[in-house]
Amino acid sequence: MERRKVDPIARLIQALSRLPGVGEKSATRMAFYVLRQGPTFAADLAESLLEATQRVSLCARCQNLTDQAECGICADPQRDVRVLCVVENVQDLRAIERSQEFKGRYHVLHGTLAPLEGIGPEGIKVKELLSRLAGSDRSVEELIVATNPSVEGEATALYLQRVLQPMGFTVTRIASGLPIGGDFEYADPATISRALSGRQRMS
Amino acid sequence: MERRKVDPIARLIQALSRLPGVGEKSATRMAFYVLRQGPTFAADLAESLLEATQRVSLCARCQNLTDQAECGICADPQRDVRVLCVVENVQDLRAIERSQEFKGRYHVLHGTLAPLEGIGPEGIKVKELLSRLAGSDRSVEELIVATNPSVEGEATALYLQRVLQPMGFTVTRIASGLPIGGDFEYADPATISRALSGRQRMS
């Protein structure tokens, strides 16, 4: 097909429908909305897309996304350099930051072990973790493994424990159980089982 | 704020959240997805946005969106030039085209009358309709007013009837009633009322 013959509206709808959670109907609605808004709106979105992909890369220390050599968290002298929170991805890091509960630094794995899909330790940022623990981050004492309580997240946590504990690090795992506001009536058996086995003495 | 200091991820999330139906959460998910896909994905979406807003304009005849002087429907010699279907917007035109029920041409109003919001006939493409009926489209005999069965759509239909009928055109209105597969039990009173008053003799 000749390049100029491609319908630009169809092309825009197709491009938008590749975004996550966007079907053809929403993409069509978005496309017409964009066309109604005029060129400035589209140009701003286009520039944001290009700028983000051009300027954002991985933090040399923790693999968080950043437009600097080191991300804002790693560069913050207020953060506790003795505790490292290991997360699956940047969204999880951001969720933990929003809770304002954690004052240490992070390490982003960018995935989990998934043997069935052929993803082993070399497929996630484990090498980078070991390298920083042996190099610039010798101050780390405890690693909180905050991968999700899913099959893959648990497998990844177990793997990290087996590698890191013999090296002398304290390896802890986030607590699992009923979420705050949750209800036993609606909780799944695995969550209830975890809530029971993870019980703690009340003080 | 200095221009270079704006976090490109935050900027992308903000730009994406201006799309219709996209809240901050979906925008965040989209932004990280885009960053994971790499620069080609973002560049393609950015180019689609720019190309669409640069190349697409209104059809000189029917006000449909097109990248030509006249849209594909107006340029199609197979379409019946005696019937004109008047719609609110391009999405509605596309929906009617998908039904493959209509073989005439269209006129897109790009809105409805909305006196409370200060939108009168000059705020929608009525002038363009009258001008084509008096000029290049003298062949038109019937106008099917296919604005939506909403307060604004009905008001617009009534207005068009009052203007066009005295000019000698046959002005018809789309049928309203229970949708196919609908159920009286769940239909609203206005729809039921319309289904009854619009009843037709069975042949």
Secondary structure: helix percent of chain A: 40-55%
Strand content of chain A: 5-15%
The coarse overall form of chain A would be globular
- The overall pLDDT of chain A, averaged over residues, is 92
Task: Assign the CATH architecture of the largest domain in chain A.
Answer: 3-Layer(aba) Sandwich
Number of domains of chain A: 2
Q: How far is it from the N-terminal to the C-terminal residue of chain A, by CA? A: 73 Å
What structural class do the secondary elements of chain A suggest? Answer: alpha/beta
The helix/strand order of chain A is HHHEEHEHEHEHEH
Poorly predicted runs of 5 or more residues of chain A? none
Largest interface: A-B, 46 and 46 residues
How many strand segments of chain A?
Answer: 6
Report on the biggest sheet of chain A.
4 strands, parallel
* Radius of gyration of chain A using CA atoms only: 22 Å
Assembly category: homodimer
CATH topology of the largest domain in chain A: Dna Topoisomerase Vi A Subunit, Chain: A, domain 2
Query: What is the CATH level 1 assignment of the largest domain in chain A?
Result: Alpha Beta
- Count of discrete alpha- or pi-helical segments spanning 4 or more residues of chain A: 8
- The strands making up the biggest β-sheet of chain A line up spatially as 4-3-5-6
